[in-house]
Write a structure and sequence with these properties.
Length: 261
């Protein structure tokens, strides 16, 4: 069991949605947070709104440039011990394969895949040395099941699940826990912030996400998964929760359903 109280938790995507809910719930449990996203002023406002604001810090990073983010984080965190890293930041997509420009695929991979690899490289050496630590990565049900309009997002989220599986196998002998979270639909800004085929922001909600679980419910599922050292957890309801099971046991049926959606 991983206890949260008094742990230093580095949380990405803390300014919105699932990450914002996680920040509040982790702080309530006594975690000391390092809050990351691009928007420094939102993060500073969040820090001041949390219990024991002085226990928390802000580290603004643009994760669409993982090498630069790694360099900045490595020097900012040189004197800190990170117990838990939660790779939660992410960007989605709403565009057909035939209308999506190549740079959009690259941006999705940078934020949703390479930034995870890069930030893990910042904390893993210390965790291995201490024989203690926990890496948590928020993938998606879209990392198990590909659907229309999300080819780049799904590609990155599939990739990060494979990477986390390899990491878990390698870290077992080093005492570092690895948890992958697969949210289904969650009511956040994800669809609003999704990229379209030319890389511009979509700028409106989805009925799918609007009908999903609350970010608070998802955050609570993530914390439970951390506390119980789970390898992989699906957080959602309805079809978005069932889809990975259908993929495994009734793939033909699922393919027909997705083609007709
Ligand atoms: N909502 C869902 O239905 C759903 C389903 C499956 C998986 N997920 C995953 O859950 C995670 C959280 O998403 P959410 O639903 O909470 O979405 P959200 O409300 O759009 O929040 C996304 C977060 O990621 C940060 N972010 C985005 N691009 C970034 C960049 N280039 N550099 C640094 N930070 C960046 C944003 O902060 P700034 O804008 O301040 O940088 C924000 O804090 C993502 O990994 C997403 O793929 C969500």
């Amino acid at each position: 069991m991983t206890a949260i109280a008094n742990k230093t938790v580095w949380l990405t995507g803390a300014s919105s949605g699932i990450g914002l809910a996680l920040a509040h719930q982790l702080a309530e449990k006594g975690a000391k947070l390092i809050l990351t996203s691009r928007r420094e002023s939102q993060l500073e406002e969040l820090r001041l709104s949390l219990p024991s604001p002085d226990a928390h810090s802000v580290l603004a990073l643009d994760l669409s440039h993982p090498e630069k983010a790694k360099e900045t984080a490595s020097s900012a965190l040189a004197n800190k011990t990170v117990d838990i890293l939660i790779n939660n930041a992410g960007v989605s997509q709403r565009s057909l394969v035939v209308e999506t420009e190549l740079p959009v695929y690259r941006t999705l991979m940078e934020v949703d895949y390479f930034s995870v690899v890069a930030l893990n490289q910042v904390v893993l050496p210390g965790m291995i040395e201490r024989h203690n630590g926990h890496i948590v990565t928020v993938s998606s049900v879209a990392g198990k099941v590909g659907t229309k309009l999300r080819s780049g997002y799904s590609g990155a989220k599939f990739a990060v699940i494979g990477y986390m599986d390899c990491l878990r196998a390698e870290m077992a002998e080093h005492g570092v826990q690895c948890t992958t979270i697969l949210p289904g639909f969650v009511h956040t800004q994800i669809a609003h912030n999704a990229l379209t085929g030319d890389g511009s922001l979509r700028g409106k909600e989805d009925t799918d996400n609007a009908g999903g679980i609350s970010p608070e419910q998802c955050a609570s599922d993530i914390i439970q998964a951390i506390e119980n050292n789970k390898a992989e957890v699906v957080s959602g309801k309805g079809m978005s929760k069932l889809a990975p099971l259908l993929q495994r046991f009734m793939p033909g049926l699922l393919r027909k359903m997705l083609a007709n959606r």
